[in-house]
Every structure is written in structure tokens, then in C-alpha cells.
Amino acid sequence: MTSSPEPSSRPAEPPVRRRDTRLDNYVDRYAVRTHGMTASAIRALFAVANRPEVVSLAGGMPNITDLPLDVVGSSLQRLVLDDGRVAMQYGSGQGEPMLREAICEVMGLEGIAAHPDDVTVTVGSQQGLDLVTRLFCDPGDVVLCEAPSYVGALGVFRAYQCEVRHVGMDAEGLSPQALREALEVLRQQGKRVKFLYTIPSFHNPAGVTQSEQRRREILAIAREADLLLIEDNPYGLLGFDHEPLPTLRSLDSELVIYLGTFSKTFAPGFRIGWVLAPHAVREKLVLAQESATLCPPVFSQFAVAAYLRDHDWRGQIKVFREMYRERRDAMIAGLADHLPAGCTWNTPAGGFFVWVGLPAGLDAQAMLPRAVTARVAYVPGTAFYTDGFGSRFMRLSYCYPTPERIIEGTRRLGEVLNREAALHETFGTVGPADPAGPALPYQAPRPNQS
Amino acid sequence: MTSSPEPSSRPAEPPVRRRDTRLDNYVDRYAVRTHGMTASAIRALFAVANRPEVVSLAGGMPNITDLPLDVVGSSLQRLVLDDGRVAMQYGSGQGEPMLREAICEVMGLEGIAAHPDDVTVTVGSQQGLDLVTRLFCDPGDVVLCEAPSYVGALGVFRAYQCEVRHVGMDAEGLSPQALREALEVLRQQGKRVKFLYTIPSFHNPAGVTQSEQRRREILAIAREADLLLIEDNPYGLLGFDHEPLPTLRSLDSELVIYLGTFSKTFAPGFRIGWVLAPHAVREKLVLAQESATLCPPVFSQFAVAAYLRDHDWRGQIKVFREMYRERRDAMIAGLADHLPAGCTWNTPAGGFFVWVGLPAGLDAQAMLPRAVTARVAYVPGTAFYTDGFGSRFMRLSYCYPTPERIIEGTRRLGEVLNREAALHETFGTVGPADPAGPALPYQAPRPNQS
Question: Which residues lie in Low complexity bias regions (chains A, B) (predicted)?
């Protein structure tokens, strides 16, 4: 079982477990929040999906094969010899000043003017989201998320016992009208929203990007409603078509708390992300970080800073961008060639993910075991909702497998879908009825295939 | 302001802050837990204490100058070249299997027989404690701690809105009688204890160690009361006198959750600790870790594993032990030479800390600014209590400064205390009355000086 952020192709651990059948003697001692922590039903399946013969279009792991290992290796050796006794010591709870300065330089590429003093380093942006939620959310507090939203964020909100309300999206991302409606419903219910969590660029899992106009509309609503926004931007620098769009944070520094990470532009294994937050929030974040970890990994911070100093990291991001563009192209071509009629998808302009809609009657979660048997894996859309929606959708990722494997994966997926469709025609019982509700799953507006 | 785990001698950040006087516009949005997160009053003072002219006996930073930087540097370079694409990638939420195997070998030195499957890697043992508390504690839940207890643990319990009850100690650590009484009082109040947090070996801050007999008594009470124990053991391998005593976990694998760390036996900057927990708890811990960070720092895990493989780490621990023993000896000699009559302290058999009691009428917290002015720093005893006790005590650490600096520090401290005592004799108003309550501060049983 690999428990990386998302199902991945890392070697699975030995499947033999001891005492698997033992009862949990501690169950009556757990906190209320712990009873909501259960391993997902698809977890076991992904252990199988990690086998090399399976093409996994499920994982969210970046492809870091292009990183210059010789440069990083020498850089880290020199780091240990020159600064080892500082880099291996405890550090600042807020994060090392020289890294926070470099982070401001990185954010500058997306139009953000920030002071290093307002940056808090975190254990990946996942921990940034955990700490922000810790600061703001009591059990029962309402958090708004896109429909669909990042599975790891939904896990954090569940851990803090938040009530998640999904807000609909369209081809330009989060829908302003849906946001207004959601706020109005909550106002009528007398519930206050603690924040809106959004991924404006190259959305995970929906693959869409908020236009600049859309961003300004969302911010106008936020200002009117005094709504705090959490902007999660792991993929912003990995766009294929043009310069990055202005981040929400670059347009408003008071209502936006910004989450960044080096996981996709450098490497995830150092676990270095950050939160850029208004000063008062930043002070609380540092106290929360000290309570959570004393300080984020110091050696990792020095390692990332050394990489940024010793390597052409801007050039490296361009290399990554071209590599992911090629994979995106392979996937879109593969989908057009192999997916049956009635499927829909969008063409992401960056990032890692394509969001695929299935014909009526098919159920992505129900068919997953059959797909894995056919040696292809994906994440069913239901993972990205807290409310049971998404069964007619799946997230495909093109970040990790080679273009050839991606195309082979879409071919296998097409076969599975054709069989499912045939079954459905014959028996009419393969999938559940289409979901309907306040926040319908995002559906690509133009079926790319008739 | 350095925000390492404890006041340290790392260079302070530039004191110039922007918008320091701005009001907190977010204050009415915070969670209830966040209102309890406030920077300690002594924090600003420690920024001053970090100046080189001040002898800081306040910090808990290990002295890692003896680490072989050439070995570590080459080891990490080879790691990047050989395994860089795995070590810099996402990893398992539970932690890397090869490191968990090595952790079991390390724990074997303290009598623990464990399976790697029951180990969860954490961002230092601080995060271990955070995750364990997250699993078990709802707001208002009662947690038992020693009197005094580790300041970082008290911070975690506060962050989870626990009710901390202190349990008295004597020269052999946590008092069984005090524990029985505390349990009885809580039983009468109808309150259930979620767990007892204890540091059996070389206690932080009290410096005492539970004898083997004492450990068995505590476990017997725990079994009778069905009380879960959290054993925090950062210093267990750093004893000066004999082989490590059996850990609580080696005597009971069902009621003890064990926290370990490489921060004191190797280096804290990698932020690698671990939790050894019964299987059912471990499963929840991994889910909590995934929610908190996706996975603990992968590169750090590979780095620690490479160090354990490439270096005589057992020999290195012996080197550390001798180095700390010499510093302990310097501190005890300095205290005997310089502290005024009426002071008490114990002679720790390992670890980093000496717990000093002051003569009646003196207040360690009130006199701290005067001590820092006299260029010596310590942590006032009140930091180690949640209930206001401890004002007549201070924690001195001998881990970081050289023996010469330690002796100079005790000399300066002696001067300060003499002046305080003279003031008290003249005016009688220097300190508060002696505290009294259910869990009196631990006081060394034999004054080491008349």
C-alpha cells in the first residue's frame, strides 16, 4: 500500500500484514474527528494499480526524471560541508529567512509582491492547508469548495470536522453565480462561511483555469461578502499556452491566503511548501507550526534554497512545462482515438489532470475494479466530492507515465468503457442514475468527440 | 526572534517588523483553539538572549559539532546520484520501509521488540505528539502530565483544547501515589483521562529518571485504570551512568504509545521522529499523517537511513554521551561554586537539563529580565506548568554551550541570585508567595548545597 498523496506508482510495501483482523481496542478512546478517518475503499485497489503492468492514470506524482542529479548531489554535499551544522540543527518555526526570500522571488513570477516576513514555510502545501484550517475552523464550520475539489483538501476539512459545501464550476472554473447562490443559501440558514478554498489555475481534478475576468468577479463577490479565500496554486507555473494569469493573491492581499509549493516545480520529497498570509494570520500560523512540528524540515529548506541558487530553476520549469505539454497532447489524442461516444473531457492548458465525463448509466467507481483488471487505473470522480456526486466522472492524470504509456492507457480505458457501455445497453444496470443537486459535478462544456 | 523548539542561540532574525501595530482583522474568524495561541511573554526576551554575549542556559538544542560532516556530505551526494528520483519523490504516508526497519534496530537498544509495520514516521517527535493528540483528544478531554512537563507538549495539549492535570514527581520521577490520587479525583469528578504523557528517562525539564521499579508501578496502575500512556523518549540513549533502563513500551506493548526521534542522537534538522503504536492506532496515525502532510519528508528519511548505514552511529552516540556528561559535570560544579544558599538542584544521569529550585521569596520569571541584562538566560519554571506553578524554579540546560561557558553562566546566575536575595532581604517583595496546590513543582529532594 503506497500512501503517497494520490495513488502512485511507487513500489508497494509488502502486502503481508500482521494482526489485520484484530479488533480496535482503542476505538472508544478516540476523538470524534478520528471516527471520520477511515481508509478509502479504493485504497486496496490502488495497491494493485501500482503494479508495473498497470498503466496508472490515477497518480498525481510529478515526473522528476529531468532533474539534474549531478547538480543537486554536488550542491547538497557542499551544503553539508559549508553549512551542515546549521542546516542539520533546529531552525525557525516560520522557516529560514533566506528560503522565504527566494519564495518571494518565485511568487514574483505570478505577479505577487510579498515580503518574506509574511511567508510561513510548511511541510508541503498540504500542511499549509492543515494549519490554515486549524486556525480558522471549529467543528461544524462551513467551508466552500469547488465541485469537484482536491481530494487532499477534502480530507483536511473532514479531519477538522468542517461542513463542506460544493460550489459549481464551468469551463472558466468556479462559477460566480453558483458562489453567490451558495452564499445566499448559507445566509438564509444563518451559517457563516469560514473560507472558500479554490484552485484557480489548472484545477485538480477538473483541469480548468479561471480567466482573469473570472478571478476579478470572484474577488468582487468575496469583498462584498467579506469572504476569506484560500488560493491553492501548485501548478500555476506549469501552464502550456501563455504567461501565468495573475493569482488571486496578486489582486488582493487582505482577503486571500495563498498556498505554494516546490513539489511540482522542483521536487516533492523535500516537502517544502509555504503559506503567504496577512501579517496577523501569519503570526498565528507560526505558533501553529511550532506546536505541530517545532519547525519545518531545516535541511530541506537549505536544500531547496541551494537548488534555487545553484541551478537554472527557471529554465528547469520550462523543461518541465514542455514535458507535461507533450504528455497532455498524448492524452488528449489518446482520448479522441479510443474513448467511446458520449464521453466528454476538456483540454487543460496546464497542470496534470483531465476530467472525463462518462455516458449516462456508467459508474466510474463501480467499474474501477474491472479497469484495474484491464491494467489501467484512474481516480473515480466521487473522490473529489463530499456529497456522493461524481460517479459519472473520472480524473485522468498525464503527469507521470510516458506519452506511449499514456496512449496505451487510454486504449485500455476505451476498451473497458466500450464493454461497460455494452453491458449497460444489454442490462441497463451498470451505473447509478445521474446525480442532481445543488452543485453538479463539473462537466466539460463541449464534448470533444461526438 | 528564533522560534526553534526552545530558546536557542541561532541568529535572531532582523528585529524590524512591518505593520506590527496593525490590528488583527481576522480575529473574529478564528477557531476557538486559535484564541489560546499567543506568543509567550518571554519570547521577546529570548531574542535578546540569543545575542552572543549572553550565555544561554535556556535552549534545548543538541550540540552537533561532533558530527562527521565529510561522511554525511558524501553520503548525501551518493544518495542523490543513486536514489535521487525516489528520495526526492512523494513517499509513503507511514514513512519509508527501510527507515522503519532501522528505527526498530535503534529501539532495540532500549529493549523494544517492534515490527516496522507498527512504526509511523513523523516530522520530529513533536509531530508524533500532535498526531496522537489529534487522534485521541476532543476539546475538554483530560490529559495527565508530570509536574513540571515538557513545554512543547503542553503547547500541543493547549492547541487541542485539552484540560491538563499535572501529577507530582519525586526523585524517581512521576509519583505513583500522586498518579493514584489524580485518577481518583478524576473518577469522582466523572472525568475520563485520555492518556498520561510521561518522559521516563532524563526528564525535560526536571532532569530525573524513573527507576525500573517505578516504571513497573506506573504500568501496574495504568493496567488497573485502563490508562493509555504516551512515552516520550528523546534522551533515553544519552545516559551517563549505565545501560538504558527498560522503556515503558518494552514492558507493555498494548497500553503504551512510544515517541522517538533522531533529533538528539543524530541531528534535529532532518525533522525525523516516529511513533510506535499498537496496530489499530497506527492505522489511524497514517491517515492523520496523510491528512497533515501527505507524507513525512522523504529526502530526510533517506538521509537518516543513509547516515545509519554509512556511519558508526552507535559510536557517535557514545561520543555525544561523553560530551554531554562533561557539560553536565561543568554545570553541577558551577552550581555548587556559585549558587547562593537555599538553592536546590538534582544531578541528572543523562539528557540535557537541570532543574533548579530558588530560595523562598525569589521568582524566576520576574528576575529573568535582570538575568538577561547580566548576560545569562534560563527558562523560568512557570513555562512547564499550565496552572501557574513553578515560579520558584528554573530549567538550566547544559547541552549547547561549552563547559567554560556553562561555568561562566552559572557564575553570572549566582551573582543575579545573590542580588535578588539581597533585595528580598531588604524589601521582602521580590517574589510571590510559595505556590501550593494539587501538584507541587518537583523539588530536588536533597539540597546539594547548604
Answer: 1-11
